Every structure is written in structure tokens, then in C-alpha cells.
Amino acid sequence: MSKSIKQDNKIRELRDTLGQFTTGVAIVTAPGEDARPIGMTINSFGSISLSPALVSWCIDLRAASHEAFVKARHFSITVLAAHQAELAMRFATRGADKFRDVETDGEAAPVIAGGCAWFKCNLVRTIQLGDHTMLVGEVSEFAQARVAPLIFSGGSFCQLPADCVDTDHHAARAA
User: Fold this and answer.
1) Sequence-separated (6 or more) residues with CB below 8 Å from residue 57
2) For the segment 73-101, what is each residue's pLDDT rounded down to a tens digit?
3) Which of 15, 124, 139, 141 has its CA 20 to 30 A from that of 48?
4) How far is it, in rounded angstroms, from Cα 85 to Cα 90?
5) Number of separate domains in the chain
6) Rg of the Cα trace of the chain?
7) Domain assignment of residue 123, yes or no
8) pTM surpassing 0.90?
9) Which CATH number characterizes residue 133's domain?
10) Could you give the CA distance from residue 101 to residue 172 in angstroms, rounded to a whole number?
11) Quick one: which of 159, 165, 142, 155 has its CA closest to 43?
């Protein structure tokens, strides 16, 4: 049965229904207005194009860091590994000391250590869509590790079953 989303009481139900789509979990960082990095947890990361290498992510217009991310000229995205659920929660918490005791590469838009992949990007476009802004970046650097990713499904962090994580396949393909 289809549902109309024009009523405010349907928004939570829509969010729960969208949550049935399993995603990866990432942390996006950028230089903040005071030269200290800003960061937040996202699951809206996506690949747009391989040539040129373009990726996107979305931020709520009401997010405290919205203006700083939109003004930043570059950002980094770290795809989190299965063991990084605590970091995902910390970077999802408003007002948290997000970078406390977090190992990074020390850049203005830092990559978080221990993730399963990372991308450094130059911001090329912002697009306001509904209650979010989509940020599109051109990838300038990237790397991957052979570790299992953290995933988000049905409102919870999860891990892939061992038979879904084929690190040998990645090694053979890279050779």
C-alpha cells in the first residue's frame, strides 16, 4: 500500500522505510571557519562519474555545520571500517568533541585513520534539493584498505557476513 508523504506525521514513517535500504557509513571532513576541521557522519555518499571522478554527499539545511561545508573548497570522505561504529556515533552527535583522540592525516580536511577507503575532493558544485544540499566533489586522491566496511540498515550499524568480505578478490584485481 502506498503512503502520501504530504502529512508531517508520515515523515518518520518515510524515514524508517528509506532505512530499509542498506548503506555504507562514512565521515566527511572539511576545514572549518576557525581553521579547525569540522566533520560529520554520513550515509548519503555516492559515486557519480569515473571520468571525471565525481562523488557526492548530502547535508541537512538545518545542520550546524551546513554553512561551513558549503563554503569549504575541499573535503575528505573516509568510508568507515566495521570496527569504527563508535566513531560514527561520535561524529553524528551535535556538539561532541569529534576529533578528540582520533588519528588523522593532519590535513585541513583530515582523513580518519583505519577506514576501509578514503577520498580527498575539491568541491565543484552545491545543489539545494528539498531540505538538503548535495555537495559534488572531484576526487583528487583516494586509497583503499582491505578491511570490512561498517554498514547501516534498519536504523542500526551492522557488519557484513564474513562470506561477503572478499579481500583476496581486491588483491587479485589490483595485481
Assistant:
1) 26, 28, 42, 44, 45, 46, 77, 134, 135
2) 999 999 999 999 999 999 999 988 999 99
3) 15
4) 9
5) 1
6) 17
7) yes
8) no
9) 2.30.110.10
10) 35
11) 155
